[in-house]
């Protein structure tokens, strides 16, 4: 299993910054078990959320991997999530949490106000699992993805909890996400 922890420590895009904005689009939306100074709903453009990344360490096992969220490039798409203002030392434990294929990347993000409108922009950091990482599973029929999620369990818990918590969090944000809500529906009718 590839471990991206050491690679990420060399990806010092925010060296010298006292604070950075981390953009969460998957479990980082609903499981903020790290210290943050402030959080604000935000979105990034040109990316779509997909359950295309394998989870062998959190929501599955090496024998029975689960599926978790990553981002796929998509022109004109908007991906809603949560931005956290953090100090850079918080990245070390996050690198460990995201070690199964995710790499730090720098992206522009837009904050969202209470009316749901985009406001000011900032530089942000995401953890991205791209299609060349060994844990990438890629596209599959929605029913197959839902079945895999229904069956998988790992050290962090049931895979279905990840999907259902993410769908609930996106609904609370007022965010559209056809892929996530269709998968949630599939999981519930299994
Ligand atoms: C994220 O949430 O932003 C990255 C993927 C994950 O940890 O679920």
Automatic annotation (TrEMBL):
Entries under Gene3D superfamilies matching the protein: Gamma-glutamyl cyclotransferase-like
Pfam families on file: ChaC
Top-level EC class as recorded in UniProt: lyase
UniProt xrefs under InterPro entries: ChaC, GGCT-like, GGCT-like_sf
Keywords: Lyase
Tree of life domain: Bacteria
Organism: Halomonas casei
Transmembrane segments: none
Enzyme Commission numbers on file: 4.3.2.7
Protein name as catalogued: glutathione-specific gamma-glutamylcyclotransferase
């Amino acid at each position: 299993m590839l471990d991206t922890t050491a690679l990420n420590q060399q990806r010092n895009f925010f060296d010298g910054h006292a604070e950075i904005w981390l953009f969460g689009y998957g479990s980082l939306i609903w499981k903020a078990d790290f210290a943050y100074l402030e959080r604000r709903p935000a979105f990034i453009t040109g990316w779509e959320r997909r359950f295309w990344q394998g989870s062998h360490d959190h929501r599955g096992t090496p024998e029975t991997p689960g599926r978790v969220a990553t981002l796929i490039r998509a022109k004109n798409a908007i991906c809603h999530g949560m931005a956290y203002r953090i100090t850079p030392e918080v990245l070390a434990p996050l690198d460990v949490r995201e070690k199964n294929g995710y790499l730090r990347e720098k992206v522009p993000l837009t904050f969202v106000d209470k009316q749901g409108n985009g406001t000011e922009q900032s530089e942000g950091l995401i953890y991205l699992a791209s299609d060349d990482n060994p844990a990438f599973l890629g596209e599959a029929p929605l029913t197959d993805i839902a079945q895999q999620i229904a069956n998988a369990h790992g050290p962090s818990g049931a895979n279905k909890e990840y999907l259902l918590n993410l769908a609930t969090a996106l609904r609370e944000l007022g965010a559209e996400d056809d892929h996530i809500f269709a998968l949630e529906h599939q999981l519930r009718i299994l």
